[in-house]
């Protein structure tokens, strides 16, 4: 995992739709990621999806170290055809995700249960120590809604981990009420 990347990826999870979403997340965030996962997809995609989110969230946390110089906050409003999703992140040290999506179908493709979108972002937030919000504003196509989430999340996270040129040596405060 390289945070200051170019969007290069080599991803093989065994879950085609998840591969596609991770490729878009990496490309839009301008991260580099090489990921191979041999999960228990013969059961379902749940553990594989959650474990991948845990691994990537930890990789980001480890790469950021003490968070020196990062912007900390990022947000993006992403249209994907008829879908519109707002994504916001605060690398606060407090891991939580608020995911408000109305995804019409229960599955995308043959393996990906749409309830796993929320599971992915909860696990990622917990491991990174970030507050993540995903709010669907519009959308009827399940694929478009989820794609808007992953693209927008890549963009918002890319903004949050970017070096704040006004304070490149500052460690963002996560204590007290005025942060």
TrEMBL record:
It is found in: Cytoplasm. GO terms for biological process: L-histidine biosynthetic process. The keyword rRNA processing does not apply. Its EC number is 4.2.1.19. Its main location: cytoplasm. It catalyses: D-erythro-1-(imidazol-4-yl)glycerol 3-phosphate = 3-(imidazol-4-yl)-2-oxopropyl phosphate + H2O. One of its GO terms (cellular component) is cytoplasm. Keywords: Amino-acid biosynthesis, Cytoplasm, Histidine biosynthesis, Lyase. Pathway: Amino-acid biosynthesis; L-histidine biosynthesis; L-histidine from 5-phospho-alpha-D-ribose 1-diphosphate: step 6/9. GO terms for molecular function: imidazoleglycerol-phosphate dehydratase activity. Belongs to the imidazoleglycerol-phosphate dehydratase family. This is Imidazoleglycerol-phosphate dehydratase. The gene is hisB.
């Amino acid at each position: 995992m390289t945070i200051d990347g170019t969007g290069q990826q080599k991803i093989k999870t065994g879950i085609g739709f998840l591969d596609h979403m991770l490729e878009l997340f990496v490309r839009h965030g301008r991260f580099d990621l090489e990921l191979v996962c041999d999960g228990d997809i013969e059961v379902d995609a749940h553990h594989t999806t959650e474990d991948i989110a845990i691994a990537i969230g930890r990789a980001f946390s480890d790469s950021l170290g003490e968070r020196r110089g990062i912007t900390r906050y990022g947000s993006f409003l992403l249209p994907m055809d008829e879908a519109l999703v707002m994504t916001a992140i605060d690398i606060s040290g407090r891991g939580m995700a608020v995911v408000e999506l109305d995804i019409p179908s229960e599955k995308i493709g043959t393996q990906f249960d749409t309830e796993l979108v929320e599971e992915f972002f909860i696990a990622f937030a917990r491991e990174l120590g970030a507050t993540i919000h995903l709010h669907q504003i519009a959308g009827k196509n399940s694929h478009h809604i989820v794609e808007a989430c992953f693209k927008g999340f890549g963009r918002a996270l890319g903004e949050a981990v970017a070096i704040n040129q006004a304070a490149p040596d500052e460690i963002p405060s996560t204590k007290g009420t005025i942060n």
